[in-house]
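Reading a protein record of the kind used here takes only a little practice. An example makes this concrete, so a full record is given next.
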Amino acid sequence: MDLYDVMRTTGAVRRFTDDPLPDDVLRRILDNARFAPSGGNRQGVRVIALRDLGTREALSKLCVTGARRYVAQKRNGENPWNPLQPMGVTPEQLAATEVPAELSTPLLTSAVVLVVCVDLGVVAAFDQDLDRVGVIAGASVYPFVWNVLLAARNEGFGGVLTTMAVAEEPRVKELLGIPDGFAVAAVLPLGKPQHQVSKLTRRPVSEFATRERFDGESL
């Protein structure tokens, strides 16, 4: 496929067919994704491919904590898990919130689930001393994650970047034997889409790109 076509049609896929994603195709996806940049070219990414249904069921249960707060806050008109806006949901409201099954279904119905980790011992977090949530360390892992999704699309497969399991990272690490010093960055269910989108909707460039200053003229 043309690169721009891949970029414009790689949407979030949560519904999959029963088609398998063979190991040779998965290796090809990862073989191409590995050329993503990372800080100092240290390549601190590790990938765990989950096919065992029991393990995936256990992982899906660990997503409930993050998903419950997400759903409760959204229903309360809040931006879920936003670091700048304190949660207004009461503990009682949170406990009473039911988590829709479809939030964890992709982990069970996809052909494979990739758990992407990053070695914190090799990332460069230039924002670690700033008075805000750190984001810079993600530059050493999320280009790889997106490359996986682009490569999957090129192979006729799809997936979605999920992070709800990270709310229970210690338990995820225990489940999968992830050593100290590594962070769980993403959980990617991959498989054959039931429906392949042909067009995505995004804001035009003029709405998010400016010249010279944040409040400058639109590009």
